[in-house]
Amino acid sequence: MDIPCLWIFAAFCVLSVYQVNTSLLAPVLKLEEKILDGESTEITCSLPTNETLDVVLQIVAKVNFSECRNDKGPPPVTTCQLDATSQMHGTEVTCEAHFVAKSKTEIIYVHTDPKFTDCPEKVTWVEGHEETLKCKAEGYTPPVVHCYFNKIKVKEGEKFNVSRSMAGRQECKAVNSFDMTSTKVTVTVEYKPKILNLGAVPLPPVPEGENVTLTCEAEGIPPPTYTWEGPSAEIQTSPDNRTITIPGVKQGNYGTYVCRAQNKHGEDTQTLTIYQPGSNRGFKPETLFAKVLLMLIPASLMYCVH
């Protein structure tokens, strides 16, 4: 580049800086001509412009002003009241203009894989109760979490009624626009006992002197405990109390035995009657009535034909 060209470029830069500096507005500070000791005086700081500007005007001095008012204008003006005293003689007062710079903010969004942050490895529920599975995941976009209990699909945070079929090792999935991840949850479903079978060996009727064993089988979680009620205390029980044995049945052993299966969620009972041969304990009137009715029907038909 030629020397004359450099001088022209330098002159242009100086002129630009000068124009920028001279374009800045200078605040105007006004004081009353005669300020008297013991009286209130007004000090004004203004910016000579007819435009609405984002600016803060401030009157600065090593004294305390009794009151200051701000008017955004245009033109913007700040006025302060001062209770003058002789000690304030010679105090400097400055009018400052603080221009507020404009700014713009953007947020950076980074798409990431979903990741489970708070999902239990094991849960225990009670059948029939209302529950909510809390299984949180993070990522961007925010993932949606569903858990699959066999054929039942449940969204994270959604309420549902617990059924026994939900028990087992189940899967939860977190899905967003970027990817998918999964985790396993072991579900235990507790429920009250249900007696499945109450039987005797041998089956009644049981002759005197013979041994008889009663067995009660129930399901439930936690596993139920068993208790028995009957006409005689002369019985032998198994370690888990599911089975009782009556050795050498006597007259005092005949009667109704009750099996009760219990856990913390409830109980179930069933009864079984031990009776001796020849008794009418196993007699069912409806069975006899049915037999008699079957005998009478053919005779009635023959009578109608003739």
From TrEMBL:
One of its GO terms (molecular function) is integrin binding. GO terms for biological process: cell adhesion. It comes from the Eukaryota. Keywords: Phosphoprotein, Signal. InterPro entries: ICAM_VCAM, Ig-like_dom, Ig-like_dom_sf, Ig-like_fold, Ig_sub, Ig_sub2. Residues 114-188, 193-273 form the Ig-like domain. PANTHER family: INTERCELLULAR ADHESION MOLECULE, INTERCELLULAR ADHESION MOLECULE 5. This is Intercellular adhesion molecule 5, telencephalin. It comes from Xenopus tropicalis. The gene is icam5.
